[in-house]
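Hi V.,

You were right to ask for the full record rather than a summary. Here it is.
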Amino acid sequence: MKKIPTDTCVNINPFPLYFLDIDRKVIQSMVSIFQTHPFTSYLFMTEDATYAYGEEICKWLSLKHNSKRPQKIDILNDKKIIQVESGHEFVAVLTDDGLVYLASGHPTWKTNNTFRLIPTGNDRFEMMACEGNKLLLLRQDGTVFAFEQKYWGHDDSELVTLVNIDIKNVKIIACGADHSLALTNTNEIYSWGWNNHGQLGIQSNNPNIPTLVSFADCSINSPIKNIVAGARHSLFILEDGQVFGCGYGQRSINDDKEDAKVPTKIPIENVQSVACTNNLDLSLALDQSSHYYVWGMARNLEFLPPIKLDNLPRSFSSASLAISSSAITFGLTPFVFEYDDPILKLFNNPDNYDVEFIVDNRSILACKCHLKKESEYYSRMFSGDWKDANKVIIRNYSYNIYRSYLRMLHEEFYGFNIYQSNIAELIDLANCYNDERLMKHCREFIQKELNVRTIFTYLPLIDKYEIDEMHDKLVKLTMEDILPKITKNIQTNKKNITKFLLWFSEQKSFLKKEFKIEFD
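Predicted structure:
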C-alpha cells in the first residue's frame, strides 16, 4: 500500500511571502511540493525533475540558494518520487521503483553533500516515515525496517544497516518525534519508542519493541483507516469517521485536562482524513462536509480544543494557518498554480497593466480600473494625486508587504502571512488605506497572539489603532498574570515597595485626570 497524499492540490497563496520571488514559469511547472525541517526549506517536483529551495536544503546539497529560481537536483533526474519525509536535519525520498535516497546536513549520516542512495541490497520499499533521528521503512512484503543516525559508538563511518523491527503484515507506518506506529492488515496497531506523554497509547514505559495498542472500552467496530503521528501524540482514524487520539496535545479534550494515556475519542464526527507533522503538537481533520478542524498547540503556546474553521480553507496547508505562523505541507503535497481567474490576470501581468508601483526599487504591475473598484483609497488617489501617473513610487512600505496587499485585492481567498515582525507595517497600511478587510486580519492576529509574553509588543498597536475588542483579554492578562507578579515582587523585596509607591505617587495626577481616581 503506497502512501496516499494527505492533502489535495494547494495553490501558492498560503505559503510564505518569499515564494513571491520565484519565477512564475517555474511555479507553473510544479506538480508537488514538500516542506523540510526546518520549515524554511522546500523540495519542488516537476514532471521530470526535483528542485531544492531554501538556504538550508541547498547547503546540504552543495547548491547555491537563489530566491528567484529553485535549484535542480541532478541525481534525482527522471526519477518518479512517490513520497518525501523529513526528520531532524535530514530528508528522505522514496521513488516508484522502491529505492530510498537521503540528504542531510549532519555529518553522521555521511550523505556527502548530495542525495545518497541508501544501500538496501535487493530490498524494495513502498512507504517510509521519519522520527527525529530515525528513518522507518516498510518493505513491499509488509516487513518494517529502520535506519538510525549514529550518535554513540566508535564506528560512525556508515549508516546503521537495515534493522528488522520484527513485525509482519504491516500496511501503514507513521512516526512522531521519538515514537513509531504500525498498522497491520489484521486491523492491529503497534507502537514503540518514547511514551512520556502517553503518545504510544499503552501503559508501558518507552518500549523498544512494538507493543499492541488497545482501545480503552474495546468498543470500536470499524476497521482502522489510517494512523498519523504528531511530535508527541498519535491519531487513529476509523472507516466509520471516528478519530481517537493519545498523548500530548490531546489533554485539551479530556475532562481531567491531563495527557491522554490511552486512545481517547476526539469529539468530531464523520472525519474523512487527518493530518499531523512529526515536529509539531498540532492536529487537523477534514470531515465529510468539507469542514476543517484544528486542535493542539497553537503558535502562542496555548492549547486549543477541537474547533471548526469558519473561513472554509481549501486544503490542510491553508487550514494550518489557523494554528501556525505559515502554511505547512503534510508529506508530499500535490501543487497547482491557479491563474485562470480573469481578475487575477490583472495583477502583475506585463501584457496587461497601466500603472507600475515601484517599491524598494522593484516593480509591481496593476490596472487602475480594478484597484479603483476594490479600494476607496485607490479610487481617491487615481482620481487625484495619481490621476495621470503611470508610475507610482511607494516609500512607506516594503516590497513584500505591498505586493501581498495588491495580490489580496485581486483574489478573494488570498491568505496573508502575518507575523510579529510584519504586523506593525500591515496594520499601518490597513489604517492608512482604510481597508477593513486587512484591518480585520490584523486584529484577529493580535487577538490570537496576545499573551503575557507579547502584551508589551502589541500594546502600542492596540492603543494607537484603538482595538477595543482586546479590552477583556487585556483585563484578564493584567489581573491574572501581571498584577500577581508585581505583588509577589513587592512582597519579596522590601526596597521595591518604596520604589513602587514613589512611582505611583508621580502618577496621581495622571490617574486622577484619566481615570477619575481620587486619593485624598
